[in-house]
Write a structure and sequence with these properties.
The complex is a heterotrimer of chains A (about 375), B (about 375) and C (about 300). Chain A is built from 16 helices and two strands. Chain A is an all-alpha fold and about 375 residues long. Chain C has one domain: ABC transporter involved in vitamin B12 uptake, BtuC. The chains are: A mainly alpha (about 375), B alpha/beta (about 375), C mainly alpha (about 300).
Chain lengths: ~375, ~375, ~300
């Protein structure tokens, strides 16, 4: 599909839709030439643009600050290490749900094998750490990019396949990754997995703080990552790429007719979703000290999907909320452990029947789910 | 705006409830807990449940006799690790963060005990396993690790010896389930078999949870092995022998302790299981005079004694004696006391720990299925 | 000579499981042809069929321990089929029908939810460990040349073929069958002609689920252990079979099932049994990339 370049009418249209909040938006953020440059340069510009744009109105900033204070002071109020551990797990799932939200919620591509990306991030860090001695902080980047790469590879079939088939392909991919991890024992340790993965360590000139079994440092680490990711996603949501995703989600054919680069949009959705899963996996591996294929099976993929769906497809806060709720709920239902999966199943059915847009919903989705017109 | 209000309320509620639950500060309680972990749900649930029942029985007896530390009540805390290594690490962390837990009898599967041992080691808490037989765990050199069961670097070779000397097997095919335990055991068996001059026709892995092994067995059939050795647990073992016989494979079937249990015979059906050999850690517990009282007590409370119940009973009792010796509800003190135990007279026999924490008494028995029951043949040699 | 025997043996093994895949694949293809919905829960219906069979057997034993094997087996299969058919129709009525006009994501996610619901319900009722499925008909080994097979395998093959032949005749000749084909071809025109889509869709689910139930019972009899988790992998492979044959195409599903069974058996025997489950997925990817309409399916042109 040939792209139209430098159409002045188009630029104006984007300008109007942008929130009228006197934000300073660098012009190059909207230039058509994004697609004519290399993908990496384009990404950099999007990133820079995202970072430079100022945040939204004051009341919302206040709410967010309040939330941040609450999150980061929690360990000082609740000293129970087990609770902190649960929150760390919840935090990791918040990352995962946010990442999946990019693929399923923003771009509307159903991915049933997200646990494979999670696994990839975890095993990548495990392997580079055990064999090459790569420390955690570098490992984060390595895991992120390796997984993003795999995400992009998986996106390739996305070009040719429609929703249902693609869903099965992603499922198949998830299974293949798990089985591969199980079978290549010499590399991955097989069903027993890999042990002895290094915990992170912070270096301040001569002083070194080594993360250990204690959960508190992981708590701060994970939630810092969550904050960074959410910030980034919020900017991305209102960027051109974000809107391209919405267009694809609603109607692919119409979107491509309107000039949206399907390929770039899909690849970046999988790439970004993959990157986030990669860093989540890295944190998981570092925290546990061991990784095994059982932690990354289909049930996990569905659980993350359920978190996104529950909170509201496409809604960033929804993904966080869904992740928090589904991570904490089993703890409140202690003793009902075996009913947990049953509950997930019922919850998903009920949500789809009664409130498909999830708890928080998403503005554009709401219109779609409630409109009377059929396909 | 409606959306953000709901947002705020739900988030505040979630965080608040967490704080409320967390702020229930516990007063120092007069309870001492001994943790126990194994697969309590899933296909190997019977193994974990039986094992933790042994621990519970030991604690009941100790409380009756007033053992332990004066003023404290002993309690068992059983947690499920679902024979999943990552879950085992979570369980270990749960035990660590519970101030009342002073030691753990666990885990059950070697693939779980090994990763969990790192957590216990870091927190300097005693970990004693009744059933994990993989030698690599103790080779890590953790002073917190103790083991009652024998190890597979003894079980495997003795099985190979028996196969060669008593059964005259010359061509053997080895199968394992790729877990720490199964593969470890099969590897040890194969090493010794080769040393004895047996021709090892092949060594293949199957996936735990799989059902259909006909393709693999069809591949094996033309080799016409004298014996097929399986390192793994009973669900797959039973299916293997069923499908092997259906395909017309006549080879003798031998397994390790993962197969030496009644459920294996049940699933494989007594007719097909007839003649199967299996090594087991220890001899025929039922015949040991020291075990009779234990067996009576267990059967009264729970029913048939599980394969490992006696071993976890002993493990728990060793911990209790260490607690008594330390006379302090303190993990480090109890660890010291454990390390100083020179010998323990348990229902399964004498237990003496070496420097690595292994039991120096490594007795392996050979069993064979006869008329629907595993019958003790003698020590595996 | 030796190697050709092994080859034939692998094929014989593959055909047996292939028949079961074919039965399940039919359910996928019938539903997809009309609704363009991948019934994710279909594999679970197969699993429920196996458990129903076990349940009926256990019940029958309380009545009498000495029932004749063949009539007992037939009754178990029939009863399980009725049970799963009812289950399938119920699921369609309450979970899929309300979402018929929703965007594609909704019924797919609902289907996943139902899949979980069924799996866990069965696990909670019957327990998580493998359940022993009794050998109602005593297994007898036969051999043809050097290929070993059992009477059970023959039974499975015959039953499956019978069911598929009946289904094919039904679809080709009966009024309801024609209505199903019409609905699959063009829903609007079909309703213009007076076909009630709700009724026909229910029938599609009824037949598909019934067949899956039969497959479940035979699976149980063949492997003698069943587990609540069985539906997942078998369901995926059956779906691959349906796609291989051409989704929406009934003979295609049968062909696809057999092919997947044989390919899987050969792959596991000659390449590696560890990667057995991966073969099915690779085949799926290949088909979707190279010939999405499947072997017997017709090329569908996407109209804008």
């Amino acid at each position: 599909m040939k792209k139209r370049t430098g159409d002045p009418t188009e630029k104006k249209k984007f300008h109007k839709v942008r929130a009228p909040n006197k934000s300073v938006i660098p012009e190059y953020f909207y230039r058509e030439s994004i697609d004519s440059r290399s993908k990496r340069a384009g990404m950099t510009r999007v990133l820079l643009g995202a970072l430079k744009s100022s945040s939204a109105s004051l009341p919302e900033s206040f709410k967010i600050s309040l939330l941040l204070v609450a999150i980061f002071t929690l360990p000082f109020f609740d000293k129970n290490p087990y609770h902190i551990d649960i929150m760390v797990t919840a935090g990791i799932f918040m990352l995962l749900a946010s990442g999946l939200n990019v693929i399923v919620g923003f771009a509307g591509i159903l991915n049933l094998g997200y646990a494979a990306f999670y696994a990839m991030g975890a095993y990548t860090y495990a392997l580079v750490n055990l064999h090459l001695g790569v420390p955690f902080w570098a490992g984060l980047w390595v895991s992120g990019f390796v997984t993003a790469l795999f995400g992009i590879l998986l996106a390739l079939p996305a070009f040719r396949l429609s929703g249902d088939y693609l869903a099965i392909v992603t499922l198949g991919f998830g299974e293949i990754v798990r089985i591969t991890l199980n079978n290549l024992d010499r590399i991955t340790g097989g069903p027993n997995g890999l042990l002895g993965i290094q915990h992170p360590a912070l270096h301040f000139s001569s002083y070194q703080y080594q993360f250990g079994v204690r959960s508190e440092p992981y708590y701060f680490l994970v939630f810092s990552l969550v904050v960074i990711v959410v910030f980034f996603l919020k900017r991305l949501e209102s960027s051109r790429l974000g809107r391209a995703w919405v267009a694809i989600r609603e109607d692919e054919l119409a979107a491509s007719c309107m000039g949206v680069d399907l390929g770039w949009a899909k690849l970046s959705a999988f790439g970004i979703g993959g990157f986030i899963a990669g860093i989540a996996g890295c944190v998981f591996a570092a925290k546990q000290g061991t990784v095994s294929p059982d932690s990354f099976d289909f049930v996990v993929s569905v659980m993350i999907l359920a978190m996104v769906v529950l909170g509201g497809l496409g809604n960033i806060w929804g993904a966080l909320l869904g992740a928090l709720m589904l991570s904490l709920l089993p703890e409140f239902l202690r003793g009902f452990d075996i009913y947990r999966m049953l509950f997930f199943g019922i919850a998903m059915i009920l949500i789809m029947l009664l409130r498909p847009q999830g708890i928080l919903g998403e503005r554009r989705h709401k219109e779609e789910f409630h409109s009377q017109s059929s396909r | 705006m409606r959306q953000s209000t709901i947002n705020k309320i739900v988030r505040c509620a979630a965080i608040l409830s967490l704080i409320i639950v967390g702020c229930g500060q516990k007063n120092p309680s007069p309870i001492i807990k001994i943790g126990c972990s194994g697969p309590m749900t899933g296909d190997q649930a019977q193994l974990g449940i039986d094992s933790c029942r042994g621990v519970q029985l030991a604690i009941d007896h100790a409380n009756e006799k007033g053992l332990g530390i004066a003023g404290y009540k002993l309690e068992a805390l059983a947690l499920d690790d679902q024979h999943n290594p990552a879950q085992a690490v979570n369980v270990a962390k749960k035990f660590i963060s519970d101030r009342d837990v002073v030691a753990v009898v666990g885990h059950f599967n070697s693939s779980c005990t090994k990763p969990a041992s790192a957590v216990y080691h870091e927190s300097e808490m005693v970990q004693i396993t009744a059933a994990s037989t993989n030698p690599e765990i103790s080779k890590q050199g953790f002073e917190t690790f103790f083991r009652v069961a024998a190890t597979d670097d003894v079980q495997g070779p003795r099985g190979a010896n028996f196969a060669s000397r008593k059964l005259g097997a010359k061509k053997i095919f080895v199968i394992d389930d790729k877990t720490t335990y199964g593969k470890g055991l099969a590897d040890e068996f194969e090493k010794e078999a080769r040393k004895l001059g047996i021709e090892v026709l092949g060594h293949e892995g199957i996936t735990q949870g799989d059902k259909d092994f006909t393709s693999l067995l069809t591949k094996i059939k033309p080799f016409a092995p004298d014996l097929i050795y399986f390192g793994g647990i009973y669900p797959e073992g039973a299916l293997l022998i069923r499908q092997a016989r259906a395909l017309g494979i006549q080879a003798i079937f031998m397994g390790g302790d993962g197969v030496a249990m009644p459920t294996f015979i049940e699933v494989a059906t007594p007719e097909i299981a007839e003649g199967v050999y299996a090594t087991m850690v220890g001899g025929d517990t039922k015949k040991l005079p020291s075990a009779q009282e234990f067996i009576r007590a267990y059967e009264t409370k729970y029913g048939p004694v599980g394969q490992w119940s006696a071993y976890s009973y002993d493990a728990a009792n060793i911990v209790i004696s260490a607690i008594q010796k330390a006379s302090k509800k303190d993990r480090k003190a109890i660890l010291h006391a454990m390390r100083e135990i020179s010998g323990f007279h348990g229902v399964t026999g004498e237990i003496v720990f070496d420097k690595k924490g292994d039991n120096q008494n490594q007795f392996i028995g050979m069993f064979q299925v006869e008329k629907g029951h595993f019958v003790y043949l003698g020590p595996a040699e | 000579m030796h190697s050709s025997n092994v080859f034939l043996q692998q094929i014989a093994n593959g055909i047996t499981i292939g028949m079961i895949y074919a039965l399940i694949a039919l359910g996928y293809t019938l539903v997809y042809g009309i609704l363009q919905l991948i019934n994710f829960a279909h594999g679970e219906i197969f699993m429920v069929g196996a458990y129903l069979g076990l349940f009926v057997y256990t019940l029958s034993q309380t009545v009498s321990g000495n029932l004749a094997a063949t009539p007992l087996t037939i009754s178990i299969i029939v009863l399980a089929m009725i049970g799963t058919a009812a289950l399938g129709v119920t699921i369609e009525r309450f979970a899929y029908r309300p979402l018929r006009n929703s965007p594609r994501l909704a019924p797919l996610i609902t289907a996943i939810g139902i899949s979980f619901l069924l799996q866990n319900a069965v696990m909670l009722i019957f327990g998580p460990s493998d359940k022993n499925f009794p050998q109602i008909i005593k297994s007898q080994n036969y051999s043809w040349g050097n290929v070993a097979f059992t009477n059970l395998q023959i039974l499975i093959a015959l039953t499956s073929i019978l069911l598929m032949v009946v289904l094919n005749a039904f679809i080709k000749n009966s009024k309801l069958g024609k209505a199903m084909r019409a609905l699959a071809d063009d829903p609007k025109a079909a309703s213009l002609v007076g076909i009630n889509p709700d009724q026909i869709i229910s029938i599609a689910f009824l037949i598909g689920s019934g067949l899956a139930g039969a497959g479940g019972v035979m699976f149980g009899m063949y492997y003698n252990t069943i587990n609540f988790h069985d539906g997942y992998l078998v369901g995926l492979k059956a779906f691959t079979a349906a796609v291989l044959g051409g989704i929406g195409n009934v003979p295609g599903a049968m062909l696809g099932g057999l092919l997947i069974g044989i390919l899987e058996s050969l792959g596991a025997g000659y390449l590696s049994s560890e990667w057995k489950n991966v073969f099915a997925f690779f085949i799926l990817f290949l088909i979707l990339l190279l010939r999405p309409s499947g072997l017997l399916g017709s090329r569908v042109v996407k109209k804008v």
